[in-house]
């Protein structure tokens, strides 16, 4: 198995050098961009990266704007480095749809763990292609093709969002805790003040409400988690 | 009605009393001067007429005259006795019966003959003012007539009449209106200033006084301009400090991130079991938290606290969830009084920051197995959120300084950092208040939030 190719985008040249050093030692192949423009050039086809890490706060084009430019044409998994002191709440508001979030400054070990979790999620090959199609409320979840159809029209979902809706539609009427969802969707453990799973659930909810505005399919159960309402 | 506060009524009372007394004194003095002469004139005319009648009657029939005088004197005592008014001897005819009631009683004249013998009246004991004149009868006899007048009595009577008259009512109304106007003119701009200073105090440093107040040419205008100048000065100074704090914290983050990357490289070489590496991580966490807190404090000032609202119970649940996640073995209990408000005005982030910092403080400073209780109950026009721990509380000295940044009880201790200062700042920006007290078990921090006005 070849080393995964990671694109590291941060305006701090020295930091990217050190992190590249660290991550290379851990067996990853690292490319570095020190501005959003540089990153866009590197991401242009035919480039093939397995994952990108974007710093939110960069002079000129920010990490959030970069993500907007990249998506949805490029489905590359993205980890966002957010600033301390409330950035995560702002991102919750913007509903950007990165695959995971990590606050900066962070322990490089933590960054490595997140990168591996996302890669694991991406690389999990469907061992025996699951041909089941799960249906609720006119939604058809095709597990083998990893698509969600509403009345034969596919909904655009990121990989993490697809995992979220899969968890919900496979367990209708069951309260899923944030810890369990984080484990199953993001393939890592929930940490303190971790809102990443909430971002994903919120995005899925928003997309579902566009096609089924009259029905709130995913309910928040305070203090416990989330619940998908099954069809009676 | 805060408008009618004490200063307002003080000014009102003083000016009301002053104007009432000035008006009353003026009326009395002027009235005295003008009325004294006119009353005298009227009395003189009446005395002349009465003397003429009495003397002419006396010269014709002394006995009849005596009876008349006797009746006159009697009628002064019981002037409403109808019988006396039936007699027409001394009365002008053609007057209706009703009119006679209004007629003034006869005067008590002292009439002397030209040689000084008292003919009618009483011997003169009165030494005050009197009207004196000589009357010559048709028969050519000279008589001396005197009428004592008592100025004191008429003075009091006039005052009494004045107090009950329409004039007095007008005087009181005018004085009241003038005093209200004066009080209002002085107190209103002062109230404006006070409201403005309150606004400044509540954290809105960018508010400036209205041009109407600033444009005044008087002392209040000058005071208002000084206030505005001071507010700009304070705002600039505070903003400068905050910007510095924010910039410093921000600039610290880049080297800290690099340092952490270096520590990761060191860890790769020395192994994650190395004690120095572990110690380094612990210190990084501290530094990290401190910078986060400093940025958090700066950020609170910039959050919009006006236009939004939040659901308290949801934020409490979220905060407790984070708390339970960090400390799964601690007991948590949330009691929500059904009558307490649940939706409040303000930015939800301010509230969640206040809560997470109070709970974070409990995590840091209480035994790792002690629990936390949150009670939400109505308190007058606000809702009280009390967060109690079982950590044994703090010393009274510490209690007084708990919300100050970096306050530490003793030098060895880690100090309270910025957590509770952030909580206080956030609650203040929400228009609420925060306080702390020791309970039997530990420390209880109470947040009072004003009820959502809608």
UniProtKB/TrEMBL annotation, chain A:
Gene3D superfamilies: 3.40.50.2300, 6.10.250.690, Winged helix-like DNA-binding domain superfamily/Winged helix DNA-binding domain. One of its GO terms (molecular function) is phosphorelay response regulator activity. Residues 131-230 bind DNA. Its main location: cytoplasm. Signal peptide: none annotated. Residues 5-119 form the Response regulatory domain. This is Response regulator transcription factor. It comes from Neptunomonas marina.
UniProtKB/TrEMBL annotation, chain B:
The keyword DNA damage does not apply. InterPro entries: HAMP_dom, HATPase_C_sf, HATPase_dom, His_kinase_dom, HisK_dim/P_dom, HisK_dim/P_sf, HssS/ArlS-like, Sig_transdc_His_kin-like_C. Its EC number is 2.7.13.3. One of its GO terms (cellular component) is plasma membrane. GO terms for molecular function: ATP binding; phosphorelay sensor kinase activity. It is found in: Cell membrane. It comes from the Bacteria. Keywords: ATP-binding, Cell membrane, Kinase, Membrane, Nucleotide-binding, Phosphoprotein, Transferase, Transmembrane, Transmembrane helix, Two-component regulatory system. Residues 247-453 form the Histidine kinase domain. It catalyses: ATP + protein L-histidine = ADP + protein N-phospho-L-histidine. It is a multi-pass membrane protein. Residues 184-239 form the HAMP domain. It is an enzyme of class 2 (transferase). The chain crosses the membrane at residues 7-30, 161-187. Its main location: membrane. The keyword Transferase applies. This is histidine kinase. It comes from Neptunomonas marina.
């Amino acid at each position: 198995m070849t080393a995964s190719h990671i694109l590291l985008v941060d305006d701090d040249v020295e930091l990217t050098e050190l992190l590249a050093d660290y991550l290379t030692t851990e067996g990853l192949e690292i490319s570095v961009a020190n501005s959003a423009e540089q990153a866009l050039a590197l991401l242009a086809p035919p480039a093939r990266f397995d994952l990108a890490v974007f710093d939110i706060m960069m002079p000129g084009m920010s990490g959030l704007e970069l993500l907007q430019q990249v998506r949805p044409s490029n489905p590359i998994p993205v980890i966002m480095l957010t600033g301390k002191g409330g950035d995560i709440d702002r991102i919750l508001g913007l509903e950007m749809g990165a695959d995971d979030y990590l606050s900066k400054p962070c322990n490089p070990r933590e960054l490595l763990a997140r990168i591996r979790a996302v890669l694991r999620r991406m690389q999990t090959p469907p061992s025996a292609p699951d041909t089941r199609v799960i249906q609720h409320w006119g939604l058809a979840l095709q597990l083998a093709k990893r698509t969600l159809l509403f009345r034969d029209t596919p909904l655009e979902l990121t990989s993490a969002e697809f995992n979220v809706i899969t968890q919900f539609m496979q367990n209708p009427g069951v309260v899923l805790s944030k810890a369990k969802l984080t484990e199953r969707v993001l393939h890592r453990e929930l940490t303190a003040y971790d809102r990443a799973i909430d971002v994903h659930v919120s995005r899925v909810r928003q997309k579902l409400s566009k096609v089924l505005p009259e029905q709130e399919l995913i309910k928040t159960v305070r203090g416990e988690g989330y619940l998908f309402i099954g069809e009676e | 009605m805060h408008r009618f506060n004490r200063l307002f009524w003080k000014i009102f009372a003083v000016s009301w009393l002053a104007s009432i007394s000035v008006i009353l004194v003026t009326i009395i003095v002027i009235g005295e001067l003008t009325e004294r002469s006119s009353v005298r004139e009227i009395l003189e005319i009446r005395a002349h007429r009465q003397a003429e009648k009495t003397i002419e009657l006396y010269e014709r029939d002394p006995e009849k005259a005596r009876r008349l005088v006797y009746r006159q004197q009697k009628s002064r005592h019981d002037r409403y006795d109808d019988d006396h008014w039936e007699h027409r001897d001394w009365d002008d005819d053609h007057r209706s019966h009703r009119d006679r009631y209004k007629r003034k009683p006869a005067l008590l004249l002292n009439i002397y003959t030209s040689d000084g013998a008292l003919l009618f009246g009483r011997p003169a004991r009165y030494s005050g003012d009197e009207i004196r004149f000589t009357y010559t009868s048709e028969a050519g006899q000279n008589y001396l007539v005197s009428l004592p007048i008592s100025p004191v009595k008429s003075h009091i009577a006039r005052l009494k009449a004045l107090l009950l008259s329409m004039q007095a009512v007008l005087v009181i109304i005018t004085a009241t209106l003038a005093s209200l106007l004066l009080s209002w003119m002085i107190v209103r701009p002062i109230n404006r200033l006070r409201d403005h200073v309150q606004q400044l105090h509540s954290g809105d440093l960018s508010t400036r006084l209205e041009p109407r107040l600033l444009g005044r040419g008087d002392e209040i205008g000058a005071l208002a301009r000084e206030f505005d100048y001071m507010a700009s000065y304070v705002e600039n100074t505070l903003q400068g400090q905050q910007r510095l704090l924010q910039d410093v914290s921000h600039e610290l983050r880049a080297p800290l991130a690099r340092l952490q990357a270096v520590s990761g490289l060191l860890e790769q070489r020395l192994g994650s079991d190395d004690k120095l590496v572990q110690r380094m991580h612990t210190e990084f966490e501290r530094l990290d938290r401190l910078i986060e807190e400093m940025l958090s404090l700066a950020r609170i000032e910039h959050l919009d606290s006006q236009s939004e609202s939040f659901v308290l119970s949801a934020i409490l649940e979220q905060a407790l969830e984070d708390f339970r996640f960090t400390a799964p073995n601690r007991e948590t209990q949330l009691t929500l009084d059904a009558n307490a408000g649940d939706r409040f005005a303000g930015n939800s982030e301010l509230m969640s920051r206040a809560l997470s910092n109070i709970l974070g403080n409990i995590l840091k400073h209480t035994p790792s197995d002690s629990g936390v209780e949150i009670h939400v109950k109505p308190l007058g026009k606000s809702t009280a959120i009390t967060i109690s721990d079982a950590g044994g509380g703090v010393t009274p000295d510490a209690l007084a300084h708990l919300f100050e940044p970096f306050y530490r009880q003793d030098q060895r201790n880690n100090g309270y950092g910025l957590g509770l200062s952030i909580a206080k700042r956030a609650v203040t920006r929400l228009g609420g208040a925060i306080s702390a007290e020791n309970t039997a078990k530990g420390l209880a921090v109470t947040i009072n939030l004003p009820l959502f006005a809608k």
